[in-house]
Amino acid sequence: MNLVLLFKILLVLLLLFVLFNLGRALFIMLRGNSQQSMSQFLGRRVLFSALIIILLLIALGSGLVTPNPRPY
Q1: What pLDDT tens digit does each residue of the chain (72 aa) get?
Q2: What UniProt keywords apply to this chain's record, in alphabetical order (predicted)?
Q3: What is the 3-state secondary structure (H, E, C) of the chain?
């Protein structure tokens, strides 16, 4: 497999994990009397979102992925 394809798959999986944690926090918030803390899932969401941004910046800096050209 190509390295770029593996990187994109990793980003998609991380984004899905972020959405999963956000959904779990929503259900805990709506249920109200859960033993788990809602902030645990929200903290994971913030951590993985920051990881996604850092990975994108590293990939852009190293030339692994290229942004779309400007329209003008």
Answers
A1: 788 899 999 999 999 999 999 998 888 888 876 777 888 888 889 999 999 999 999 999 998 888 888 887
A2: Membrane, Transmembrane, Transmembrane helix
A3: CCHHHHHHHHHHHHHHHHHHHHHHHHHHHHHCCCCCCHHHHHHHHHHHHHHHHHHHHHHHHHCCCCCCCCCC
